[in-house]
Design brief:
Layout (H helix, E strand, L loop, with lengths): L2 E3 L2 E3 L5 E2 L2 E5 L37 H10 L4 E6 L1 H5 L8 H16 L3 E6 L15 H6 L7 H4 L5 H4 L15 H16 L4 E2 L2 E2 H20 L5 E5 L24 E2 L3 H8 L4 E6 L10 E5 L14 H4 L3 E3 L5 E3 L7 E2 L2 E2 L2 H20 L4 E4 L18 E3 L6 H6 L6 E3 L6 E3 L1 H21 L7 E2 L8 H9 L3 H16 L3 E7 L37 H4 L6 E2 L7
Parallel strand pairs: 4-5, 4-22, 5-6, 6-9, 9-17, 17-18, 21-22
Antiparallel strand pairs: 1-2, 2-3, 3-23, 7-8, 10-11, 11-12, 13-14, 15-16, 19-20
């Protein structure tokens, strides 16, 4: 197992290692049995009777995929698991068949020479709130009725929305009621929902304890595999409503489709229709277009016999006329007389708690930490003592959101401003990724940095490459991102490698298509390069181990 020397990964000889790899894989967000591809609606809400055995691929296919990835020069895997994969059947019911499969498929990765770190993946909380990660019963524990999210606007979900699914609308679920409520309860329920308990426990403690025990079960299962170097804390955490100063105001988030304010979202979930603005997708912004009436049927997003957790905790109540009345518009802004800050007050304490839980089972494991996408790193001066690695994510935002490549337009992830001109884009992207190194060195006490996700969509320009076989736009887009990695000598794992990617449905999840491999591009099964996409930009030279500190690549 490699070690850490301040800001570098090192091998047994003290050489500086460079880790380059992939996220494995995009469809690991979904059950293998029955097929959980998000365009399939049948049986969607039967969430306890699923299996993730076979994700990222059936065990009998493992050698093929590992051989291909090694031939392409990769040495590291960010290996996706989900909380749902482990504990889908119900609270405390771990899927031992999945854990056994996980051991075998990770063991085989080690036999092929890979270093592996485990990523408990999630996006916008759960499959049932438009993403992946948490089991369906977590929503039920909070009193939410996942079958009613569509009419109440609590989430936009591919399975209930149907095709065509709006391009890249899924991230907006982070600020819609279902996911925003669950993130708030998970990270900060003790402060903002003290009246809400499950099985005698405050809901924050209930949710966190089940998540931590699930990940401890994974760490226990994989103990003894030297290829496993560590564990991610929580993929792309979201703050929910934490820190919102006025529930009546718009949130400063990606806006697309109908976007209620938090107070409108709470009223919609309680069965009160609201007129909300609709935002279209634009290249350089999302200007207001029109309004629409949601939930005219007065459907409730809460289970029968359950009340809204935010009413239960005094955020709102009914007035004398039976209409919703907001009592605490700044409920989530402070605790007592102290303003709250998500990263400092909630994410960092949880990350410490997670590191301690993993280290009780696997004491040598590295702990891979990230913040919300676009946000700065936690301030964690003693992070090196906990074997922490800073693992932020970065994407070429214009290319990712629009699924088009503009060689003369880029974007700044944190400022959300466009960048014009090839030279300016090169400088900007190098500077943006350089900030990660600075944060790892200064704010986190000097830890290695590994960019956990970076990549490009391959279905650019209306999937033109799939019809014509010309992947030059994809190559240029990938090369632009990878040059920024190289300019900063960064470790990284590309998003992603999906073994069952197909041109029609991409990575099978929310119509995303970022896999560097597809069966539909595979013309010769005996050729390991066959099936690769834009390999002239994906396969790149780098120093595996350096006797000294690399200065330039």
């Amino acid at each position: 197992m490699p070690g850490i020397d301040r800001e570098h990964f090192i091998d047994d000889h003290g050489r500086v290692l460079m880790l380059r790899g992939v996220n494995l894989g995009g469809s690991s967000k979904l059950p293998f049995t029955p097929d959980g591809s998000t365009y399939r609606a049948n049986g969607f809400f039967d969430h306890r009777a699923v299996s993730f055995v076979g994700r990222p691929f059936p065990l009998e296919e493992a050698d093929e995929h590992y051989q291909r990835l090694r031939a392409w020069g990769f040495n590291t895997l960010r290996f996706l698991v989900t909380w749902e994969a482990i504990e889908h059947a119900g609270p405390g019911l771990h899927d031992q068949a999945y854990l056994d499969y996980l051991y075998e498929v990770v063991k085989k990765a080690g036999e092929h020479g890979f270093l592996v770190f485990i990523d408990p993946h999630q996006d916008v909380w759960s499959r049932f709130s438009g993403g992946d990660g948490a089991p369906g019963w977590t929503l039920e524990a909070a009193g939410l009725d996942m079958t009613k999210f569509a009419p109440t606007g609590a989430a936009i979900v591919h399975q209930t929305h149907g095709d065509p699914f709006p391009r890249m609308i899924w991230p907006t679920n982070a600020s819609r009621l279902a996911a925003a409520t669950m993130f708030t309860l998970f990270f900060a329920g003790n402060d903002f929902a003290p009246a809400t308990c499950v099985d005698g426990l405050p809901i924050q403690d209930y949710l966190q304890s089940h998540f931590l025990r699930s990940m401890q079960a994974v760490a226990q299962q994989l103990n003894g595999l030297d290829c496993v170097i560590g564990y991610d804390v929580f993929n792309e955490p979201q703050r929910g409503y934490v820190g919102v100063k006025d529930l009546r105001a718009d949130l400063d988030t990606l806006k697309m489709g109908p976007m209620p304010t938090p107070w409108q979202a709470i009223q919609l979930a309680a069965g009160f229709p609201q007129r909300v603005p609709i935002f279209p997708l634009g290249i350089l912004g999302v200007p207001l277009k029109k309004h629409v009436l949601l939930n005219a049927e007065r459907t409730s997003a809460w289970l029968p016999g359950r009340t809204c957790v935010w009413r239960e905790n005094g955020v709102w109540d009914y007035d004398a006329d039976g209409k919703p009345e907001l009592l605490r518009p700044a409920h989530f802004a402070c605790v007592g007389d102290r303003d709250v800050e998500f990263t400092r007050d909630y994410l960092l304490p949880f990350s410490r708690k997670y590191a301690e839980a993993i280290h009780t089972v696997a004491p040598r494991s590295m702990i891979f930490v990230e913040n919300e996408v676009e946000d700065v790193s936690p301030v964690w001066p003693d992070a090196p003592a906990h074997r922490v690695v800073y693992a932020p994510h970065w994407y070429d935002g214009i290319t990712l959101i629009t699924k088009r490549f503009f060689f003369f337009i880029g974007s700044d992830m944190r400022s959300r401003q466009p960048v014009f001109g090839r030279k300016a884009i090169r400088r900007s992207y190098a500077r943006q990724l350089g900030i990660f190194r600075e944060e790892g060195a200064v704010q986190m006490g000097g830890v290695p940095v590994l960019v956990g996700e970076i990549g490009i969509p391959y279905d650019l320009n209306g999937k033109q490459a799939y019809r014509e076989g010309n992947f030059s736009a994809q190559s240029r887009a990938m090369d632009r991102s990878m040059k920024a990695i190289e300019d900063n000598l960064l470790n990284c794992t590309l998003w992603d490698y999906t073994s069952d990617n197909i041109n029609q449905r991409g990575d099978r999840w929310n119509d995303e298509d970022l896999s560097i491999f597809s069966r539909d591009q595979q013309t010769d099964p005996t050729d390991l390069n066959s099936g690769g996409r834009a390999l002239n930009a994906v396969i790149r030279p780098y120093p595996l181990a350096t006797a000294g500190i690399p200065l330039r690549l």
